[in-house]
Amino acid sequence: MKKMMFALGLSLLTISYIHAQGLKVGDKASDFKLKNIDGKMVSLKDMPQAKGYVVVFTCNNCPYAKAYQDRIIQLDKKYKAKGYPVIAINSNDPELSPEDSYDKMVIRAKEKGYTFPYLFDQTQDVYRAYGAQKTPHTYLIQKEGTDLVVRYIGAIDDNYQDESKISQSYLSSAIDAVIAGKSPEITYTKAIGCGIKDKQKKS
Length: 203
Fold this sequence. Notes:
The chain is built from five helices and nine strands; from the N terminus they run αβββαβαβαβββαβ. The chain has helices at 2-20, 63-79, 102-112, 125-130, 170-179; strands at 33-36, 41-43, 52-58, 86-90, 118-120, 134-135, 137-144, 147-154, 194-195.
């Protein structure tokens, strides 16, 4: 009986630890400084006119990430002018995913005509701090004074395969709500995509 209780306690502790990792809606996000595809270092504070940010953890190689490339460009074009630019981050380890190397990032950004920074999380510290798990995985962040407050975490919408069959645009709805001074009706959804490639996790 004692062994069973110990095992149960250990399981609950493990689950609590997993859920404690990364950001949650309402948390304050940290800024970062990462290398952009133009060779320059970029941080959120470099965009003082922004009212917030749409941080998207994505990559080159994942089929889900590829399916969302054009939609992410559309999001940036629509919301950058309203104060919410897209910041894309590739956190994949290129040793595990060679197509996600920095050089390949530069090529992909030029091919697709990315209108936003595409940053390389070489140390993988940023994705771990945010708690991103998939590509793509999105975080809507709103500026409140000097704080960066998380307002939405999860998927971009509910149909990665066919844009014409989307019934819920989670991220757009959340951004629209925040711009209107409201709280998003849906603040969290499960991100759908490929696991971020990390040697520590052997994903």
